[in-house]
Amino acid sequence: MYMYRQKIEDLKAWQKSPHRKPLIVQGARQVGKTELIREFGRTQYRQTAYVNLDNNSRMAALFDGDFDVNRLIQGLKAETNVDIEPDSTLIVLDEIQEVPKALTALKYFCENAPQYHIVVAGSLLGVATHQGVSFPVGKVDYLELAPLSFREFLLALGEKHLVEMITSPSVDQELLAYFHDRLIDYIKAYCYVGGMPEVVASYAEQRSWNEVRRIQNNILFDYANDFSKHTPEASFARRIEQVWRIIPSQLAKENAKFVFGMIRAGARAKEYELALAWLEEAGLVRRINRLEAPRIPIVSYANASAFKLYHLDVGLLAAMVRLDERVLLEGDQVFTEFRGSLAEQLALQELQVDGGLDVCYWAMDGQSRAEVEFIVQTGSQIVPVEVKSEINLRAKSLAVYMNKYQPRLAVRSSVANYKKTDNLYDVPFYLLNNFFRNIQKY
């Protein structure tokens, strides 16, 4: 079952670009990279020359020779039985990490044969450590693929018209209010199911919570196996798993700042920094730094030593904390469980759907202990976003921030209906992405 992914539009733009370079599609395992690329090849090219490099001795030998492009093309023709033509054939090299020298070859395709359309996918973890391998810096384009967003989740469930309502540049707020409860029910389901393609496909076909959780647990098990597969030292793999396992409890703290000491008694940052970096490179975690001052660009005023650590996917986070499906039937309890960490995870994913927003968080020490979950830079605006897990919309921390910095506008995201009060916008979770994509129209 192929599910529409918005990133296919980015692939189409890459295809038509006069400055096109070989493309690396990045993202965590099992987010649908291969399915997206193959659908792109099927719909946009006359033919696709697809090669899986995993356990492929012929391709390992091919790329172990010189990097003469004509020789490589002849080898790929023989491997795929496809008569590769520059403009009508998409060349796909999957599991690129298994033949690291194939990554180096992209440099020569870029410099000597830019007419070929080449897309590669796979984990790049450990590639740079292989002897004789150089990364093609400046010679490749990149595309990042995340789990399905909420709007892609709705499309997979056949809710095309709801998607049109929440993605329109000019949202009809009165009409949307009639469908608010329905959308919130879908948001609850998304918090449980998440956006991993295999999980969403299963839910779309069977609507079985038990099957959803079974597949999620299998994915989490596969990730845990990767810790040892891609790391040479058992002690390093253990440190990676320790950081990975602590994420849910860190997010559920009143102060969600990541504290290395929670991993184990006496743990220090220097022991786990590389493990954390590994998880980031693998696409399994999202780091959000603390903002010291709301000035543009916010990345220049972010404190890299103080950060929150979020998960790859809200559904996998729900599986890690063993969220019971019965909470989906009990009002808005799904958002209040685990101190609202699922609501924060959901909001962050929706903020980062399109990849163009810089996001930090803000906290003020002292008696007030104020903390705003997200500070978002969009163009020349810096917008505070407080996430509320309950219908009670008292936002003390946001009020502290607004009094201190006087932002032009502020956002409170929750399950409540859309509303504007002066410069404060109440934006339901399902509308959060649209709000920032069309902020000038609100």
Explained architecture:
It is a single chain. Helix content is 43%, strand content 18%. The strands form 3 sheets. The chain has a 6-stranded mixed sheet with strand order 8-9-10-11-13-12. A 5-stranded parallel sheet has the order 2-3-4-1-5, sandwiched between helices. Strands 6-7 form a two-stranded antiparallel ribbon. With 442 residues, it is an alpha/beta fold. The longest helix has 21 residues, at 209-229.
Notable characteristics:
442 residues, alpha/beta, 6-stranded mixed β-sheet, 18 helices, 43% helix, globular
Strand and helix layout:
Layout: H1 7-16, E1 23-26, H2 33-44, E2 47-52, H3 57-64, H4 69-80, E3 89-94, H5 100-112, E4 117-121, E5 141-144, H6 150-156, H7 160-167, H8 173-178, H9 180-193, H10 197-206, H11 209-229, H12 234-251, H13 269-281, E6 285-291, E7 302-311, H14 314-320, H15 333-336, H16 341-351, E8 358-364, E9 370-378, E10 381-387, H17 396-405, E11 410-414, E12 419-421, E13 424-428, H18 432-437
Helix pairs in contact: 1-2, 3-4, 6-7, 9-14, 10-11, 11-14, 12-13
